[in-house]
Specification:
By secondary structure, the chain is α+β, with helices and mostly antiparallel strands. 27% of the residues lie in helices and 32% in strands. It contains 19 helices and 43 strands. A hairpin with a 7-residue loop joins strand 13 and strand 14. Helix 4 packs antiparallel against helix 5.
Length: 689
């Protein structure tokens, strides 16, 4: 129901799926929505769906979405009375909150004092501890040097966890098993924290092995009312980044005294929020011992909406009605009071959320960048999709790789998991690689199905995961689509398919599949495409929309063709891209291989994607060893290390911190130094004398 006392115009200072999600609620409330966008996001979905859109700068987040002045300028241009920050970017930035306050613009979030107290993990930990909230043992003091942290590590005890004070999303967190690992881990954590958050302050905590990650949603108004909305379990994490979240927590659902523990952890969350006079929607995160669920420790409070908030919305009922957290954020910011009490909060059924990322799990989750050619998102009973996707979307290296979230509700956990798996299997995203196959593998895992979760589960399971490879019949299908469809010309003289008067002579074609080159013989015939791969014959022909016959066997697969001839295939959540390799490229590869000798490693170190140089760890002419880090590149908010392929002498490209690099750009070359090329050692000279 529209409330005329709410704001007339609200600017959404974010992008992607969260911006779209906030805009939908603003529209339902009858509030004019304003989107902001960078040059890289000019064609983004949130821009199209808002009532007004304002450009705030170039692609780099530091010059657009993170620019306080640019966002304030957009507020002035649009006449926005309030700003919803989403999550990430400026959502927990104290200076942004102050700037809005000075400009007379409402911030749809907590007061600056709450952000300031809870935004610093050291300060927040010490603060809530003084209010009776249990915390993990460790050392949390501002301004500690690496040496001081190393001195304190023995008292904290190993294994321990390094955490950035200003951080979030698991970035900059490092597990340290022994004192010898500590110096390098501290250096890397400082670098990551400084790059990601502009603050390299670190602290140490005792590592709680195999813990459960339980968080509690809180909601508070300016009239003294604070409630919790149950808990979420976020234990399925990879490198401290959540992957699948659910509500309620299976840990508590399976315990006889689960309701008592839920009440206790909820009360602790409310106490933490009240200790800073919190206003709005927030999340208090706890580590919970799997062996002793009644023992839980405060980790941090996120003074904003969480990525996983939809699972809470799907299970919480207030006097039988569903809850919209964004709506309540807006209402509270406009001065309204909560119209319900803790006793009226009920949990109904079970909800699970999976985060869909543009990444390649089979190659250490390397981000995938490109143009989304075609999208089909799931629908069905109690399926919800919060998404930024649309056909033609450019997925760039500037931002987080999350594309969408798929949420499923069920009467119980078993039904919600089954619905989520079915929804993921029907999701089709062509043009970039995604983690959907990996998400389905997690949902099928016996421990996940049984609710036996902990934050290290994915780390233990990953080595055993086997991702599906493109079969020869699918390669034949891709070749058919690339050569018989994409390369088709009405004029036979313009074709490259071996056409001639009489029967086609056939051609040899090359395709890049999963970083490897495959060669095949292709011949166009009246019956279809005749393709030979490693001596095996395939006959491919279309049999209907999305259907193809390969040697008489029917294949139902979603397909798309990119401008460069790359064929994208998708089926049951699995996706692959098959890129044709032209003659000139093949010749260049063969000549390079001849220069370095048969079977030798390539001396070139290339960036796998566009990104920003955040560290250069080797100097030109330095002797290096195989696996040594030469440079670090950040793309999609992740650090990627460029490693030496072999022992030798490195020639570094003229790179410096802050430089932008292109995909496949040479970062360095490593010359293998033969024994005869090396200078004699001091010992050898002494012996020769």
């Amino acid at each position: 129901m529209v409330n005329n006392q709410l704001f007339d115009t609200v600017l959404v200072a974010n992008r992607g799926e969260i911006a779209v999600r906030v805009i939908h609620t603003l529209k339902a409330l009858g509030i004019r929505s304003v989107a902001v966008y960078s040059d890289a996001d000019a064609g983004a979905r949130h821009v199209a769906e808002a009532d007004m859109a304002v450009r705030v700068g170039p692609g780099a987040a530091s010059e657009s979405y993170l620019s306080i002045e640019a966002i304030l300028g957009a507020c002035r241009r649009s006449g926005a009375q309030a700003v919803h920050p989403g999550y990430g970017f400026l959502s927990e930035n104290v200076e942004f909150g102050r700037a809005l306050e000075e400009a007379g613009i409402a911030f749809i979030g907590p007061d600056v004092i709450s952000i300031n107290l809870m935004g610093d993990k050291i300060r927040s930990k010490n603060h809530v501890m003084s209010h009776g909230v249990p915390v993990v043992p460790g050392i949390a003091k501002p301004g500690l040097s690496n040496g001081e942290l190393a001195d304190a590590a023995g008292e904290v005890g190993f294994p321990l966890l390094i955490k950035p004070s200003a951080g979030g999303g698991g970035k900059g967190m490092f597990v340290v098993e022994s004192p010898t690992e500590l110096p390098e881990a501290l250096a890397s954590a400082r670098r990551t924290a400084s790059s990601a958050f502009g603050d390299d302050t670190l602290f140490l905590e005792r590592l709680v092995r195999n813990p459960r990650h339980i968080e509690v949603q809180v909601l508070a108004d300016r009239h003294g009312n604070t409630v919790h909305l149950g808990e979420r379990e976020c234990s399925l994490q990879r490198r401290h980044q959540k992957v699948i979240e659910e509500a309620p927590a299976p840990l508590l659902e399976n315990l006889a005294d689960g309701e008592r523990i839920r009440a206790e952890i909820g009360a602790a969350a409310v106490a933490a929020a009240r200790s800073v006079d919190y206003v709005g929607a927030g999340t208090v995160e706890f580590l919970v011992s799997d062996e002793n669920p009644g023992e839980f420790f405060f980790m941090e409070m996120n003074t904003r909406l969480q990525v996983e908030h939809p699972v809470t919305e799907e299970v919480v009922r207030i006097n039988g009605r569903r809850l919209d957290l964004v709506e309540w954020q807006v209402r509270i910011a406009a001065g309204e009071a909560l119209d319900f009490t803790q006793d009226q909060v009920e949990l109904h059924g079970h909800a699970v959320e999976a985060r869909v990322y543009a990444e390649d799990p089979s190659h250490d989750f390397l981000p995938s960048i490109g143009t989304v050619l075609s999208v089909t998102e799931p629908a069905g009973e109690r399926i919800r999709v919060d998404s930024s996707l649309l056909d033609g979307l450019e997925v760039s290296s500037f931002y987080d790789p999350m594309l969408s979230k798929v949420i499923a509700w069920g009467r119980d956990r078993k039904q919600s998991l089954a619905r989520l798996d079915q929804a993921l299997s029907s999701t089709v995203i062509l043009g970039v690689l995604t983690n959907i196959e990996y998400l389905r593998m997690l949902l099928a895992d016996a421990d996940v199905a049984a609710g036996h979760l902990d934050t290290n589960l994915i780390g233990r399971k990953m080595p055993q995961m086997r991702f599906r490879a493109l079969s020869d019949s699918e390669l034949a299908l891709a070749a058919h689509l690339s050569l018989a469809t994409h390369g088709h010309s009405a004029n036979p003289w313009h074709r490259a398919d071996g056409w001639r008067l009489g029967e086609s002579a056939g051609t040899t074609q090359h395709f890049e599949v999963d970083s490897h080159t495959r060669s095949l013989a292709f011949r166009n015939t009246a019956a279809g495409s005749a393709i030979a791969i490693d001596g095996r014959e395939f006959m491919v022909k279309p049999t209907g929309p999305g259907r193809y016959s390969v040697n008489g066997l029917q294949h139902r697969v979603a397909t798309a063709l990119a401008a460069d001839g790359t064929v994208w295939l998708s089926h049951d959540g699995w996706t692959a891209g098959v890129r044709p390799v032209g003659r000139a490229e093949m010749l260049g590869r063969e000549l390079a291989a001849m220069d370095r000798g048969a079977g030798a490693l390539s001396p070139e170190v290339r960036s796998p994607m566009p990104g920003t140089v955040i560290a250069v760890q080797a100097s030109d002419g330095q002797q290096v060893v195989a696996g040594q880090v030469l440079a670090s590149i950040e793309a999609m908010k992740m650090e990627h290390q460029m490693l030496s392929p072999s022992d030798g002498v490195v020639h570094m490209s003229h790179l410096k911190v802050g430089d932008l690099v292109k995909a496949n750009q040479i970062i360095a070359t490593v010359k293998i130094v033969e024994a005869d090329d090396t200078e004699p050692t001091r010992t050898e000279l002494e012996h020769s004398a």
